[in-house]
Amino acid sequence: MDSKTLNIGMIGLDTSHAPLFAEMLNDSAHPHHVPGARVIVAFPGGSPDFPLSIDRVAGFTAKIESDFGVRMAGSIGEVAEEADAILLLTVDGRIHAEQFAAVAPYGKPVFIDKPFAVSSRDARAIADLAREHRVPLMSCSSVRWAENLDAAVRAGDQGGIIGADCCGPMELQPTQPGFFWYGIHMADMLYRCMGRGCTEVRVTANEDHDLAVGVWADGRIGTIRGNRKGNRRFGALLHREQGTEYVDVYAAQKPYFASMLEEVVRMFQTKTPPLDIEETIEVIAFLEAANESRATGKSVPLRGSFAKRNG
Asked: Is the pTM value of this prediction over 0.85?
């Protein structure tokens, strides 16, 4: 592995992850400092029709520029030219495919923050473009990397995993429809537990809660529960052949976002993603099917699902 410090470019300063990651990479005194990379250049971006994007750009841009010495670029291409690797953090999943298309020809490693995309079509287009330009690519929710969730999944003393139930907050945002805004956190947790192979999803929803039930090709069942009332903490019940374990992701000493950033920097250094992009695409297909079921009340097959690929 190359031990040199990598120069990182940021695209999209409209998420709290932007100043957080800049601090963790550029400030060696941060309690969860991640060595090996430093943010040097950024493009602010922002979506005018998405208040949680455009209303945060100015403040985050000022902080990143003044506190961490990051230069602001005039275009996405300028960031891609100067950086060794790219954090595409834009909070609006609708424009990730367009932004990735602008950086892919440079062939540099890219991390795309959640949601990877808000349609299976865009998710597949991004992955195909990455393959065409040989771009090491990674995208996921940070909750997937919670240390105690990882430890629980890796433990085998109670037999194989037969199912999982994941829960957390699920506010709704019109521009990131249904499950895509916060449901992606629980879906990534579920896939960390279950792996690929979901064939269909059915959702029960009301004003306060959503429950998505996924059926895997091997007969296992996994669920995600999104709450807009009451308990809004991330957690999971992991069901094994000889027992069930509750995982409180907040109980780990290291924050899950710190664990994820370590994985991202390692990917930038090795150019080997720790997560198969096909799993990321299936997470998006799961959320897309859940949204359709949320609207119709019917069971919906995943587009490009495990069953269709192997049936």
From this structure: yes
